[in-house]
Amino acid sequence: MALSTGDKAPQFTLFNTEKKQVSLSDFEGQNVVLLFFPLAFTDVCSEEMCTIRDSYQKYDSMNAQVLGISVDSLFTLEKFAEEQRINFPLLSDFNKEVSRSYDALYEEFVFDMQGVSKRASFVIDSNGTVRYAHIQENAGDLPDFDAILEALSKLS
Questions:
Q1: What whole-number distance in Å separates Cα of residue 34 and Cα of residue 24?
Q2: How far is CA 32 from CA 51, 59, 91, 133, 151, in A?
Q3: Cα separation of 39 and 101, whole Å?
Q4: Helical H runs in the chain?
Q5: pLDDT at res. 115
Q6: CA–CA distance from 121 to each of 4, 30, 34, 35, 36 (Å)?
Q7: 45 is a catalytic site residue
Q8: pTM for this entry
Q9: 33, 39, 45, 151: which one is catalytic?
Q10: How far apart are CA 2 and CA 16, in angstroms?
Q11: pLDDT for residue 140 is more than 80
Q12: How many whole angstroms separate alpha carbon 150 and alpha carbon 140?
């Protein structure tokens, strides 16, 4: 079942590229932007993560922690973050549990790949409530960064 505005965000704990556990509850009292993305090193995913990297100060000034999530291994994400100079945490949902709980998982993707994160964005307020939720119909489309920032601005 898809998450909607007003729903409680599903809790999770995943590993980041520094091989440390990160939980949604770690950011209690802070707004969180979750960005699910299909695959590291692909053109659109690189553009998405680099767009956030280059505008991260906007999110930080709005008391928002951005978290990128994909089903890539933490080792792949570590290399991706290093090469792209990503300045926010990337989390590995290798077991696909979090992508599934946010209804952001393709059962069938391109080239017969199964179980790949959909491109999806969620804004979660400081109380853990979803304030913006959008799952891209087409994985080739970038998230609506303006809509994400607008949702965050309403929380300030």
A1: 10
A2: 17, 9, 14, 12, 11
A3: 18
A4: 43-54, 56-61, 74-84, 97-101, 145-153
A5: 82
A6: 12, 17, 6, 5, 6
A7: yes
A8: 0.94
A9: 45
A10: 25
A11: yes
A12: 22
φ, ψ (nearest 5 deg) of residue 63: 55, 40
Name residues whose C-beta falls within 8 Å of residue 121's C-beta, 6 or more positions apart in sequence.
33, 34, 35, 36, 132, 133, 134, 143, 144, 148
Q: What residues have CB less than 8 Å from 148, skipping those under 6 apart?
A: 33, 121, 123, 132
Q: For the structural domain made of 30-153, what CATH number should be given?
A: 3.40.30.10
Burial 120-154 (b: 16+ CB within 10 A, else e): bbbbbbeebebbbbebbeebeeebebeebbebbee
Average pLDDT over residues 24-52: 96
Q: What is the CA 79 to chain-centroid distance, rounded?
A: 18
